[in-house]
Amino acid sequence: MKEEHSRSKYDFSDRIVLITGGTGALGRAITKAFLTCGATVISSYIVDREIDQLEAQIKSVVHLIKADVGKEEEVKKLVSSILDKYGQINFLVNVVGGYIGGKSVAELDEKEWDLMMNMNLKSAFLISKNVIPQMISSKNGKIVHVSSRSGLKSTGYDSAYAASKSGLIRLVESLSEEEAKELHINVNCIMPSTIDTEANRNAMPNADHSRWVKPQDLANIVLFLCSEDAKAITGAAIPTYGVA
């Protein structure tokens, strides 16, 4: 049974979307949004316990594939399995990422630096590298990465995270320039501030949660960027701060 999508602004009933990290808090909202539009959704995941949370929120069929998108061999297998079954990937939404903060540059461990670069930047490079050739051959595709407000300006004590998210913005710009000749391929990223998730509320219980951006609001922006309404937008890093 598919999610009811008669009320959705967009009809993606003939579209295949790959969402990396679709079982996480933001990923679940994006997954549900695409299902509401009638899309066929394939989600990569790495954390088993998130599957129960996804199934509790979403009753439609989501095709789950366990894959570490920070490893190229696993990315190749992920993409190949989707293309073998569906023949195409129309939309790529890369939600995979992580955060380490609270440490100065002098306090930061080399492994923590590498972790941020791998989770937030290398994974984006690898999934883009392996998906975009098929989009070029089909002359169609939309790619949306999730960067961060910190990619524009660090507030301190988040150097590895901010640097990785800044690098992601440059990756999006480079990809969009490389594919500028392909009129129907768009590459963009969104830049949230703090997202209103259970984990963030638990980590910052005294913050004003009402000012945080909602996952559903971000999901709606992603839908727009994958629609023909956004065909004139590519290479953009879009502020999605809400009022935070």
Q: Regions with pLDDT < 50 over 5+ consecutive residues?
A: 1-6
What's the order of the H and E elements? EHEHEHEHEHEHHE
Question: What structural class results from the helix and strand content?
Answer: alpha/beta
Shape: globular
> First CA to last CA: what distance?
37 Å
Number of strands: 7
Percent of residues in helical segments?
Answer: 40-55%
Mean pLDDT over the full residue set? 93
Strand order of the largest sheet: 3-2-1-4-5-6-7
Biggest sheet features: 7 strands, parallel
Instruction: Work out the radius of gyration.
Output: 17 Å
The number of helical elements comes to: 7
In what range is the share of β-strand residues? 15-25%
Concise account of the structure shown:
The chain has 7 helices and 7 strands, in the order E-H-E-H-E-H-E-H-E-H-E-H-H-E.
Key features?
244 residues, alpha/beta, 7-stranded parallel β-sheet, 7 helices, 7 strands, 15% strand
Description:
With 244 residues, the chain is α/β, with parallel strands linked by helices. Helix content is 41%, strand content 15%. α4 packs parallel to α5. The termini are far apart.
Secondary-structure map with pairings?
Blueprint: E1 16-20, H1 25-36, E2 40-45, H2 50-57, E3 63-66, H3 72-86, E4 91-94, H4 110-138, E5 141-146, H5 159-178, E6 185-192, H6 198-203, H7 215-225, E7 237-240
Parallel strand pairs: 1-2, 1-4, 2-3, 4-5, 5-6, 6-7
